[in-house]
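Appendix B. Extra example for self-study. Work through it before the problem class; the solution is given directly after the inputs so you can check yourself.
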Amino acid sequence: MGRFVQVKGNAKGFAIQIFEPEFDEIRDEVIQMMQESKGFFKGAKFAGFQGRHLREEEEANLLEIVESDFNLDAIKEKAAVEEPLEESHEESIVQAEPERVPLHVIARTLRSGQRIDVEGDLVLMGDANPGSILTATGNIVVVGALRGIAHAGINGDDNVSVSAYRLEPLQLRIADVIARSPDRAERDGKREIARLNERHEISISTI
Amino acid sequence: MGKVIVVTSGKGGVGKTTTTANLGTGLAMAGKRVVVIDADIGLRNLDVILGLENRIVYNLVDIVEETCRPKQAMIKDKKLEGLFLIPAAQTRDKSAITPEQMKTLTAKLKEDYDYVLIDCPAGIEQGFKNAIAGADEALVVTTPEVSAVRDADRIIGMLEAAEVPSTRLVINRIKQEMVLKGEMMGIDDVVEILAVDLLGIIPDDSEIVVASNKGEPVIYNKKSFAGQAYKNITDRIEGNDVPLMDLNGQVSVWTRLFSRWSK
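Solution. C-alpha cells for the complete assembly:
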C-alpha cells in the first residue's frame, strides 16, 4: 500500500516486501516536510540528521537544503550528534553498519481508538484526537494538535522527545515516565516539546 | 458481599453512562465503596463523564488478559475516596472479553466493594451479554419516546431470559410541559407498557450537558433537578423509601428540599 511496503502473493501465502527508500525519495520528503512546516522551524537550530546512515555527499546535499532553502542555523560541532553512534561502533567487534532508525512520516488524522506504533521516529502530519495512541521507540513529532496519548521511547530510550504544534495531550509518556494533563485543561496548546529533565521528570518547553 | 448492578437500555443515547456516573458518585458520597466499570469496549465514555480520562493507563481488557492486576486498572475518583473506575479499552472491541471473564471479575470485586456498577453498551450483542453476565440487578434506562421504550421492552425480555434476578426502570429526560400538553408519553404510560418496578424519574435538564463537559457528575450540583433526581435514586438503591419527584411543581420541590438542607 505504501511507498516502502508492498504486499505480494505467492503459492505459500502472502509476503510483505520492504523497500529501502532511495536517497532521492528521502530528499524530496525532507523538502516537502520542511516546506509544509516552514513556520514550525522558524528560528530553530538544526542539530543534524539521525536514523538512517547517510553517505557524506548525501548529508552535504541535505544540509545545503536545510541551511540555504530554509535559513536554518546548523550547529557546527556535529561531533556531538554523532558521538553516540560512534561509541556503539567501538563496542561491537564486527564493524557493522550503525543501527538504522527509520523515520515514519504519516499524514492523516488519528481518531479515537486508532493507534500508530512504530520502530524509530514518528512524524504525524495531522491531528491526534483524544483517545488515540501514538507510540515510537524514538521521537514523536506531531505537525498538528496532539490531544491523545503519546509514548516516545517505548523500549526505554529516555533521550527522546514528544513535540507538537499544539501540545494538548491527555497523557505523555517518555520511556518509563508518565505525565497526565491537568484536570482543568485549558485549550491553549502551544508549539511545545516534552522531554525528560535531569530529575527524570517530563518537562515541557516552548519551541 | 456487595451487589453488581448493570445499567442498560438497548437504545443508545438515552443516558446509561450519565446514570452510571451519577449513581456511582451518589453511592460513594453516601460512604459506600463503589466500582464503576465501563463495558463499552471501543467506545468508552464513562471516563470522560467522570473527568478521569487523563488518568487511564490500564483498562478492563488488561485485567481480563492479566496484563495488570485489577487494582492497577482501578482509577480512584478525583474527589471521592470510595469511588473507582475501571475504564474500557479504546483500541479493542467487544470480543476482547467473554461473559465468563466478566462474571469472574465482578464476583471478585463484590467481595471487597459495596456496589459494582456496570455501564452497558447499546445493543443486544456481545457487549450486552458481557455486561449482564455477573449482574445481580439490572437498571433499564429509557426516555419517554416510542423507539426507546420499544428497545427497553426488548432488553427487559432478554434480561428475563438471562435470569438476571431483578430489573428496575429509570425514565430519563422527561419534559413535563410536553407531557402535560399530551405531546410526550408520561411516566404512567411508560410503566404500563414495560410492566417493571419504577426506580426513578429524571427530568430533562440542561445542567447534565454542562456537567458532562466539565467531567463532574450533575449529582454534585444541588440546584439541579436532575442531580436531585439521581440523589433520590441513590437513596432508593440503598433501600430508603423516597417519594418520586413531583415534576409539576419543580420549583416548590426544590425550595422545600433546599430548606431541608439548610437546617
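Self-check: Residues 170 and 182 of chain A are 9 Å apart (CA to CA). If your reasoning did not lead you there, revisit section 3.
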